[in-house]
Amino acid sequence: MNLNVALIAHDRMKDQMVNFCFAYESILEKYGLYTTGTTGKRIEEGTSLKVNKLASGPLGGDQQIGAMIVTEEIDLVIFLRDPLTPQPHETDILALIRLCDVHAVPIATNLASAEIFIRALDQGDLDWRTLRKNNK
Ligand SMILES: O=C(CO)COP(=O)(O)O
Question: Domain 4-121: what homologous superfamily?
Answer without folding.
Answer: Methylglyoxal synthase-like domain (3.40.50.1380)
